[in-house]
Specification:
Blueprint lengths: L4 E3 L4 H10 L3 E3 L14 H20 L5 E10 L2 E2 L6 H11 L3 E12 L2 E13 L4 H9 L20 E5 L2 H5 L3 H9 L14
Parallel strand pairs: 1-2, 1-3
Antiparallel strand pairs: 3-4, 3-5, 5-6, 6-7
Helix pairs in contact: 3-4
Length: 198
């Protein structure tokens, strides 16, 4: 059996994605201050968020198990959108994304003892034009309320997408290719059933 890890996230999407890899894990969410630093670039911001989440969870868990954390953000024109505060905030985000291409940045952080490994996935997503009535109907589904950029690829938000270049799982919150490469550092062989880590 593969060694268990700690997933420093309460996101059901990240749990579902990690389940695909067949790696046992315990959930230990890490609450951190998610405000960007002045002048902080989007790439630096998502890397810092993932790293801080894994560090907090490692400290809280006592460091006995490896810790995996991730952060995913939508970026347009150099601005990180984050999660919507309310309907008006979500509507403003989706109106700006409408008919345009944006980036989704998904950083992964893995810690074991004093070792720290990181990866960054960058995807490009193009939205078709979205009507105001669609935005209101989408908000009413409840789906955008806790999603970066106010949409979810794995749900009805996919109706807005004209094309995607990059990692679909990264857009959903945990890029599986990059995550698999990091887990290999622990000796976890995802191709062998019951593979044991070092």
């Amino acid at each position: 059996m593969a060694i268990p890890i700690i997933l420093a996230s309460a996101s059901p999407r990240r749990r579902e994605l990690l389940d695909r890899l067949g790696v046992p894990y315990r959930v230990l969410p890490a609450d951190i201050d998610e405000r960007p630093l002045p002048g902080e670039a989007p790439e630096a911001y998502v890397r810092r968020m993932a790293a801080e989440k894994s560090a907090v969870a490692q400290a809280r868990s006592g460091g006995e198990l490896p810790v995996l954390a991730a952060d995913t953000e939508v970026e347009l024109d150099g601005e990180v959108f984050g999660k919507p505060r309310d309907f008006h905030h979500a509507a403003a985000m989706l109106a700006r994304l409408s008919g345009r291409e944006h980036r989704v940045l998904s950083a992964v952080s893995l810690r074991r003892g004093g070792d720290h490994w990181e990866a960054l996935s960058i995807s490009r997503v193009a939205f078709r034009p979205i009507a105001e009535t669609e935005i209101a109907a989408y908000w009413a589904t409840g789906e955008p309320q806790d999603k970066a950029g106010a949409y979810a690829l794995q749900g009805k938000g996919a109706l807005f997408i004209r094309w995607l270049s990059g990692s679909p799982s990264g857009v959903m919150g945990l890029p599986l290719g990059e995550t698999a490469e990091l887990l290999a550092r622990l000796g976890i062989d995802l191709w062998r059933t019951g593979a044991a880590g070092r």
